[in-house]
Amino acid sequence: MSAMMPSYPRPSLHTRSVLQEVIETILFIVVVYVLVEIAAPRFLVDGPSMQPTFWDNQRLIISRIHYMVSDPQRGDIVVFNKPGTGIGYSPLIKRAVGVPGDTIEFRQVADGSSSTELYINNQKVVEPYINEPCNPNRCQVAAWVLGPDEYFLMGDNRNHSSDSREFDQIKKKDIIGEALIRYWPPPDWALLKQIRYTAP
Fold this sequence. Notes:
Elements: H1 18-39, E1 42-44, E2 59-63, H2 66-69, E3 77-80, E4 92-98, E5 103-108, E6 116-120, E7 123-124, E8 142-145, E9 150-154, H3 164-167, E10 170-171, E11 175-184, E12 190-191
């Protein structure tokens, strides 16, 4: 007669309830949503200051990550907090025209007219993104010298933009992130074209 094998109790399988599954799924979705909002928040365009690049009520995705590992560059479209504002004030969106160490100038056009042109570090800047030439009363002859942590931001619609010409330079700590994607309305969906230009 063969020896009988000892019997061992089988481990019990603990099955989770449907309620537990639902709760864990909801928590996972919430965590992912929060992380995405932290890394890539959404932004609603409000007003005409960035026309024709953006129009009122378009929605954008902003990257916070970019400026955690690098600095804003000339031509970047950035979302930032206006200096002196606190909780309850909406961020603004403008284009970075000057970076630390730059000298930004509006000079009178050489033909003797009242029009002015943008110069960075004594070099005239060609700006294909602006809506229209800036009126002399909005782009008066003036110069700004940027410090080690200062950025000069302006709207693409210069005649209808409140920007560094009025509230001066922006510190990097006030910059939230770079605009990367326009996702709403759906027909306007696009990866945003990065315009990079250099100045001596």
